[in-house]
Design a protein that fits this description.
- About 15% of the residues lie in helices and about 55% in strands.
- By secondary structure, the chain is mostly beta strands.
- It has a single domain, classed as Porin (Beta Barrel), CATH 2.40.160.40.
- The strands form two sheets. It has a twelve-stranded antiparallel barrel with strand order 1-2-3-5-6-7-8-11-12-13-14-15.
- A hairpin with a 4-residue loop joins strand 7 (about 205-215) and strand 8.
Length: about 325
């Protein structure tokens, strides 16, 4: 038999071994949790419209005289602010993350409307070039009690995003009615790294076919406008993730009190209509996303060819997608 002293020493050794094992398990669990979060968020699995976003950005399809522009060259600077959150994002089966995001970016729009007509419509070409000012993303995984965050600021850090170009645009003007048909291509020009939490690019090409309608009663200043689009996405080959096809509508109800001043209500509706696919998808039910928002807008004409517009969109609904508030201030100059 062991002596009492030997038994006590054995108990100490056992306690020490148990303590070391618990410490190892704790450290290993923390490392595993951190690796899981980084891998899951960076690879963006299980998300309808990968990462809770898509190439469609609410409120950027127009506001005042949405589908009408006289022939000429237009430059539009949009400063956009978004703050929102996404709860219960699946990162693995049974494990969710809660995300918060604050983003500032600029969207430069350049449009040329030709005086020549094709099929009775004015031909136009347009492009939208986004670039980031600052972005902050915070990710919390309640199952592990861990929070990660990343902040990026400065044009050189965020860089240019995915450029939109519409090589084909037609605008029919029939009295008070204005109709547009546009084919947009979203090019993967933005900086993208699957190891980063924040990316300006999405690393895939999208095709957005839009049809717009505006009724503008110039005598009484009434306007009703909408643009509906169907967005088809290609695959992000770095994550093997293909965001499902998306339907979106932007609308505006405006009242012009003069040529220089108007107020209105603007908003949007978004619905993903086909499932996400690829090995990067964890969810088995397609996990489609949807969202909608509405808010006020104001128009001020400084001169005939220089206008300032502002709008705020409050998202009252979002499923499997970031939900928050959008604020935009725009300067339009016509040449």
């Amino acid at each position: 038999m062991k002596s009492k002293a030997e038994a006590m020493e054995a108990m100490k050794d056992l306690d020490s071994a148990i303590h070391r094992t618990r410490r190892f398990v704790s450290i290993f669990s923390a490392i595993l949790a951190i690796a899981l979060i980084l891998f899951s968020i960076n690879m963006k699995p299980a998300m309808a419209s990968e990462g809770g976003w898509s190439s469609y950005t609410p409120g950027t399809y127009g506001d005042f005289s949405m589908n009408y522009a006289a022939p000429g060259l237009y430059f539009r600077e949009n400063v956009v602010y978004f703050k929102g959150k996404l709860d219960d994002m699946p990162v693995m089966p049974g494990i969710n993350a809660n995300l918060k995001q604050t983003t500032w970016f600029n969207l430069l729009g350049i449009t040329y409307v030709a005086p020549q007509k094709i099929l009775g419509a004015n031909y136009f070409i347009t492009t939208n070039i986004p670039y980031g000012f600052s972005a902050k993303l915070e990710a919390n995984v309640p199952a592990f009690g861990l929070t990660l965050s990343e902040s990026v600021s400065g044009f050189g850090e965020l860089g240019v995003g995915d450029v939109w170009i519409a090589p084909i645009g037609l605008m029919w003007n029939i009295g008070s009615f204005h109709i547009t048909l546009t084919e947009n291509i979203v090019l993967p020009t933005g900086k993208y790294d699957p190891d980063n939490l924040i990316n300006m690019g999405r690393n895939y090409t999208s095709y957005d076919t839009d049809i717009g309608f505006t009724w503008l009663d110039e005598k009484n200043g009434h306007e009703v406008s909408l643009i509906a689009g169907y967005l088809i996405n290609s695959t992000n080959h770095k994550t093997d993730y293909k965001t499902g096809n998306e339907f979106h509508v932007d609308f505006a109800l405006n009242q012009f009190f003069s040529e220089r001043f108007a107020v209105g209500i603007t908003g949007y509706y978004y619905q993903q209509v086909t499932d996400d696919s690829g090995s990067g998808v964890v969810a088995s039910d397609g996990y489609k996303s949807s969202s909608a928002g509405v808010g006020p807008a104001v128009f001020v004409g400084l001169t005939k060819d220089i206008q300032i517009m502002g709008k705020w969109i409050w998202e009252y609904h979002a499923k499997n997608r970031f939900k928050g508030n959008w604020a935009t201030v725009s300067l339009v100059v016509k040449f």
